[in-house]
Structures are given as C-alpha cells and as structure tokens.
Amino acid sequence: MTATDTQPKTIFLKDYQVPDFLIERTELRFDLFEDHSRVKAELTIRRNPAGVHPAAPLVLHGVELKLLAVAIDGKVLGETDYSVDAESLTIHTLGDSFTLNTEVEINPQDNTSLEGLYKSRTMFCTQCEAEGFRKITYYLDRPDVMSEFTTTVVADKATYPVLLSNGNPTERKDLEGGRHLATWHDPFMKPAYLFALVAGTLDSVDDTFTTMSGREISLQIFVETKDLDKCDHAMLSLKKSMKWDEEVYGREYDLDIFMIVAVDDFNMGAMENKGLNIFNTSCVLANPNTTTDMGFQRVEGVVAHEYFHNWSGNRVTCRDWFQLSLKEGFTVFRDSEFSSDMNSRTVKHVEDVSFLRTLQFAEDGGPMAHPVRPASYIEISNFYTLTVYEKGSEVVGMIHTLLGAATFRKGSDLYFDRHDGEASTIEHFISAMEDASGRDLTQFTRWYSQAGTPLLSVSDAYDEKSREYSLTFTQSCTSTPEASAAEKQPLVIPVALGLLGDAGNLAIKQKGAPLNSDTPDNTHTVLELTQASQTFTFSDVPEKPTPALLRGFSAPVKLNFEYSRDQLMSLMSREDDGFCRWDASQQLAVKVLHDVMTAYRAGDETPTIDARLVEAYRSVLADESLDKAMVALMLTLPSEAYLSEISEQIDVEAIHFARNYVKKQIVQALANEFIQAYRANTSEGVFSPAASEVAQRSLKNVALSYIMALETQPAIGLCVAQFKAHNNMTDVASAQAALVNTAAADTQAKACLAEFFEKWKDEALVVNQWLMVQATCSLPGGLARVRALMQHPAFDIKNPNKARSVISAFASNNPMNFHLADGSGYDFLAEQIIILNGLNPSMAARLLTPLTKWRKYDSARQTLMQAALERILNTPELSKDVFEVVTKSLKG
Hints:
Layout: E1 11-12, E2 21-32, E3 37-47, E4 58-61, E5 66-72, E6 75-76, E7 82-84, E8 88-91, E9 97-106, E10 116-120, E11 123-127, E12 147-156, E13 162-165, E14 168-174, E15 179-190, E16 197-200, E17 203-210, E18 216-223, H1 232-249, E19 257-263, E20 270-271, E21 276-280, H2 293-308, E22 316-318, H3 324-342, H4 345-364, E23 376-377, H5 386-403, H6 405-419, E24 422-424, H7 426-437, H8 446-449, E25 455-463, E26 468-476, E27 493-501, E28 504-505, E29 525-529, E30 533-538, E31 546-549, E32 558-560, H9 565-574, H10 578-601, H11 611-622, H12 628-635, H13 640-645, H14 652-669, H15 671-680, H16 691-708, H17 713-725, H18 729-740, H19 746-760, H20 764-775, H21 782-790, H22 800-813, H23 815-818, H24 824-839, H25 841-847, H26 849-852, H27 859-873, H28 880-891
Parallel strand pairs: 2-12, 18-19, 19-21, 22-24, 25-32
Antiparallel strand pairs: 1-23, 2-3, 3-9, 4-8, 5-6, 5-9, 7-8, 10-11, 11-16, 12-15, 13-16, 14-15, 17-18, 20-21, 25-26, 26-30, 27-28, 27-29, 27-31
C-alpha cells in the first residue's frame, strides 16, 4: 500500500459486537516438514445465543494460508459452498451447531514476520498475540472466543525430539519413517492468542514447586544445550513468583506442568501462553559471566510478569484488544510489586518512574498519544505501548493507593472469582474494586479514556499568625489526538505528601477533614484531587514547611511547584520519602543544566556551575544511611532523553554539552570522594545478584563514570584494569562503555572491543551488548560506525534483538549522531524501516518512534524528518503497522 492506495480500515471500540459463533473445542494436528507444514483443524462450533445476527455466515480469519480441504460434519464442501479471500474463509449456509474440518498448508520457514508459526534458527515456535493465530489456520481469532484445545504435533524425531504445546501431555509415540508425535490437552478455555507450539532440539532444566494446596507442579525451562548453565536464576525467579502470587493474591497455579522456552528470534520480551511461556532469550538466560545486574533483574521481572498472567490475562482474559491494559497494566503493577518485595522498593520505583517520565510521557506528548484504553486502531500491534503497559500500571497503582492494600486484595479476589474463565473488560475490574470498597470510581475511570499526561501546578501560602499552611492544586492537560485541552475533564489524582520543617517532617493536621494517614506520627497523608482547582489547608503548622509532593510518585503527572534550590537541597538530605529525595536531586540538577545550556547558547562554554549541586552531591556521597543504589541514582545526572522530553524545543547540541560539562565540573570538585567511593565498593568476592551487591556495583560504576570524565591516563588505566579483571559482566560492560565514550581512550577502547568480541563471539546476547555499546557511542562518526556494524557477520537485520541493538539503539539513544544537521541519520533510519517493512512490519513500526517526534526540533530538522516520513509513506506495499504510525505522525 502507498499513500495513494485505499487506506486500511480503522477499528473502533464503539463498534464492538459479540461474536456470532463460539468454538467449544479445538483439535489441531501439525505435520511439520522442512519446506512446508500442514495444519488440520477440527472445530466444534455453535451459534452464539447472545449474537445479534442470527443468520450470519461463519467468517473465519486467515492470512497467508493455502486451503487444501474444508468439510462440515464430515461432508466435503464444494467451491460454491464457501469463499476465500486474502484475510478470511466464509461459509454461508450453516446450522446452529456443527463440526468444521479444515486443512491448510503454511510455510513457517519463510515467515520473517515472526508471527504465527515460524522458525527461529532450527526450532519451530509460535507467537500468536495479538493476531498471529490467523497465520496458522482459519479461526475466529479474537480474544472473546475461548475454546478447549487439544494439539498434536508430528515431526522428524531426530531433528525435533522435543514437541511442546499448551496444557498437560496426554500422548507421545513413535511413527513410521523416523517421525513421532506428542499430544497436549489444555482443559482451560482460552482464546487463540494464547496458543503455543515449540518443536526442536532442546535440553531442559527441571524442578518442582509445591502449591499451597499441596499439589506438586513440574517446572521445565527448555534451552539449547549450550545455555543450560544460564537457567538457574530464571528457575529461582519462577519459584519465587509462584510463592509470592499465592501469598499476596491467593492465586495458585492450575496445570500439572509449567514450561518456559528460550527463543532467539522473538519480536517481544516474552509471551504468557497457557502453561508454555515462550521467551526471548534475553529475558530468560542469565549468568554472571554473560549477564549484567540489569539483565538479572530483567529476567526476574519478566519471568514474574508472564507467570502472573496465568490469572491476570489467561484465566481472566480480555474481551477485545481495546481492553489490553486490563491484563497488561494490571500485570505490570503486579510484577513491579513483586520486584519491589524481592529487592529495594524505593530503588525499583525510582527506576520505573525514570523510565515512565522519559519515554511514556514523551509518548503522551506525541502524535501516537492515546488513552490507556484506546478508542480506535488500525493495527493492534502498534498499541503494545508504554501507555497501555506502564501508565496502565500506574493507574492500577493509584487504585491501590486510594483503597489501601487490604481492600485492593478484596477487589482483586472478587474480580478473579466473578470472571474466571471469561473474556472481561476494564469496567468489570473497576466494578469489583467498587463493590469491595463501597466507593464510586466513576470519575476515576477517566484515566482509562483520557489521553495525555496531566500537569499538576501547585502554589502554597503560610500564615504565621494563624499557623495555617495551604496548598492549591490546579490540574490541566494539553490537547491530544482524541480531545482538545478545553475538553479534558478533571481526574481523580491521589497526592501523597509530607511537610518538611527545619528539624524534619512535621505532623500533619488537615483543616476541616479527617487525616488520611497510615503513619503513627501523622507525618504522611494522601490528598484526593477531584476538581480542576482545589485548596487544602493544614492547621498548627509551626513554621513554613517545604512540601514533599507526590511521595512515592503517587500519580503519573507532571508536577510544577517552584522549589528554590535550597529547598531541593533540604529535600535531598532530610526528607523521609526516598522517591522525593531522588526527585529533588533530579530537579536541582535540571536547574543547573539549564543554566549551562543558556550560557552555551550565548557563546559561553566555560560557565561556573551552581556550587549547591556540588555540595549536595558531596553530602550524598558522605551519607552512610542511604542505600548505595539510591546514592548511585541520586548522583546520576538526568539523561539526555529526559532533558529532551522536558524541553519545549530540543536543542541536541546544548543538552549534550551541558550534561558532559556539568559532569566534568562535579568530578573535578569531588575527585577524591568519587575515587574513595570507587575503592570502597570494589569487591573481589564471588558474584551475587543479591540487592546489596547490586547496589554496591551500581555505586562503584557511577563513580567510575565520573572518574572517566576527567579523561586522564590514570582514570583510563583504572577503567582498563576493571575491564580486564572480568569479575562479572556488569563491571566489564560498564568499563567498556566508559572507554568507548571517552575520546582520550580511543586506542584502549579499540583493543578492549576486539578482546571482548573474541572472548564472547559465540554468545549471542553478549554480542548484542557489544553491538549496542558501539551504536550508542556519542563521539563523532556514529553513523559510519553503525553502517560498519551492519556489515559485521554478527549482525542480522532479521533478528529483532540485533536490529534493536544497532538500529533502534542508534536512533533512540545516540542523539548527537542520529540528529546530524544534514539529516543523514534520518535517511538511514528510513532506509532500515523500508527494508523491515517487507520482513517484519511490527518491528519496522516500532523503529519509527524517533521520527514521530519531529515537531520538537528546530525547523531545519523538522523538514528533514518530515521528508524521511514521506519517503516511508510512499513505499510500495506499505504494511498497516507502518502506515498507521507514519500517517498519524505527519498529521498529529
């Protein structure tokens, strides 16, 4: 499709209708061969008594299928009894219940979209969410059609000794000609998007888990033999997840077996298919020699996320794809709570908020902005977004805050009990929370229908005579594609706060209202905003306090309160809430960075920076009461991406200069302190992914990053020594990144890169790190380096992990080289998107994000970015995925 072709159809939530037919039982037989595969399906179907079209024909979804046979109740249909087009099979004359048999031929070996059934290297595997099942066989591929599945897989036994599908195994036997079969039965009704199949040569790490009712569950993680030493952390994470879900939500696993398979070619992080989770290798394999601390934490979080889906997504699924956040937002909230309980709650939440503010807020402010529950879409794959996942999680978190943990648990129990085995909606979830709490959440549901990030402007006043302190809150939201700013309605916004005095946090007494506090000393409360503007007054306040607003980031909003720099220093050093301490450090740094950016634009490249930032960092380094991971976070300057997000117009060069300049000024003033911190947190002991050791390494490597900003030979020598020690991948990768991004270390960086590749060239995930560190190097010549990397034997554009490591990493995380004034970075990205459009459309659409932000740049760059988008739009046979993002970006 091109811009002049017929535009693809838009799907609207308001047009939802129940399915005309239901599929009670699904029996599948897969015959897998090297050059093709055949799929036989026997579907037990009945008309839906709730359907609105009693004489409707049966229209089954199907894409890229070769129909070989079709029969109703054993009678083979003639060509006049049905019709087939590029997206469906239609049968016109039917009774109220019948059995449909079809046979199709498909070509998994040629399926580069990685949707449906495809081959990842030598392994057959599937990805059916959202609409991949229609590439497997003709079916009602919609989440509100749930069926009981029995699946038989037949393949060559020598080549594919392991045959897996959903549910419990019921039969395995050898066949003639060296082939064999395995049959699996899933007794739980599920939609087709949760179907999974794997066939390959795999080994497994096995374990068991005993549920709270005493049932023993078999646990298996399937990987290539070479990766067996990288599964222990994932298995431990799985068992922790199962125990946590029982203790916190009362949810017990239901099948006899739970399996995970690691796949190298996978568009997503992982998939929660019932009983057979398929994972990107990057989200399951972990070993100290090959995996960073961030990688270990990602494995733990993703394993938990997919396991938790067994209830929040599988047992209770989505009625339609507009309800996607019903499972994803809820489950992200659950996995975040799990990770907080397993590690540091404050550190986890700071990391989540930093991610949200930098990327999701940018999504809210761009042309693809949409509500947590979108009102329409062209291609559903484009709505697996940070808004649906991360903002959706924060919305669930606000319900948790408003109701309290005990009442929220009652609500979730009610939700699961009411809708077990059903395809549900966000209204069902909210209704359960209302019934459990006795609260009316009607206004709160605007969070699901209203796009954009609210701006919360706050002013304060103190009357010394009456000892009353007041805070006035005004909420607003900018225009987004679905509504103008004037049309936005007030949201329910929970604002957790404390009042900081000279001696610490003050007791709070809210005038004319009972205090909503769960602290015995009443130093914490949660205000509930419901109007466009509200004032809250506090009594018996002995001095004018500094308000600690949005403690724990109690709502996903932008906060505008004119803190003085001295107030921010006070919050950094004396506030009880860890999030507010970190946030104050970021706000103080932003003010100083803006000073330097202003000076840079005026031609001053050697400005004096505010000494208060240096002193604040000195105090943080000396504060032994702080978690070392929090110290590392507070010392990390706001990223270039975050500085871009909060800018009205992005000045690429000024942002880059200011961040590097301030960093160098800080370390020149605090060199001894950073060297001391580095040495104090250097350990020769055995690696452990325990939170305390992760914290120690994080502080050590932040200190190293500052020390390297000095660009002295002793600093470079220290960095090279850390790289060569090879104690763990966290330290090695941190040292390598520091060397690669330091101009004075060019010779050492090249030697370390060569050594690193030679050592790890057979470890795909480690090579991806090697590719990424070069693709994101901010030194001049970035585009040439990236083009060279794409010619390297280690790169394969068809592999999503490789494409993300080079193309996406360059375009999203290397602003100085991507946003070259001549537009060559934009041309490069357009080239790659056009190539991927023909190979993997969903991957191509995701790569478009940097170009969608063109309105935030100067006029010259705007013109160049628009030209790149127009070039993509005029590509012949443009996919729906790419078409939707490009057209919305140009219109937005």
